[in-house]
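User: Show me an example of a complex going from sequences to structure tokens.

Assistant: Sure. Here are the input components:
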Amino acid sequence: SAVISQKPSRDICQRGTSLTIQCQVDSQVTMMFWYRQQPGQSLTLIATANQGSEATYESGFVIDKFPISRPNLTFSTLTVSNMSPEDSSIYLCSVEGEPGSGANVLTFGAGSRLTVL
Amino acid sequence: AQSVTQLGSHVSVSEGALVLLRCNYSSSVPPYLFWYVQYPNQGLQLLLKYTSAATLVKGINGFEAEFKKSETSFHLTKPSAHMSDAAEYFCAVSGGYQKVTFGIGTKLQVIP
């Protein structure tokens, strides 16, 4: 399965600022997924990023708050804009772990833990 | 629509004791079911998956899970807990064209 590198691994940010998280995959993939993991809650899909097209956002998430780039088949970024303490969370990048199997197996990066003060 | 319910956000077991983590699902189509494990400061790692073959699925590190359609359950078990099993475990479901839906996770504590 693919190996995913995410950075930063953690950061402490000030309210009102923005932070960009990078996700690098060691192989070409069609879709990349961005998840949010809040304490005591399940993983929530933010958006799906396809190369060459705009990201598809899930209900409750908007492009102005979470702009995503997907410049090629191995790289994506997620920006958390105008951060508030409620954005403190772990953000995870993932890709399909078994492409073509139809089983939706996911491979995850180690995550980026953001704390907003 | 699909959903996952994990009973017990925290489970404690003694080292060497049986591990049982409960997961019930809801799906309008035949589901794929997964257990993922997350060790501290790491991403999620696939433990095992059910994809409509054998109902008893064996995964890594001695874990297994049984798909019971009549009970809509997919509980995770391990006969003997090891200290290294301490982690957070997530049950997940997907089916048809729907994306993966995760449960809230169960933190497993192993007591020496």
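The lines above are the inputs; the final block is the predicted structure for all two components together. Chain B is about 0% helix and 55% strand.
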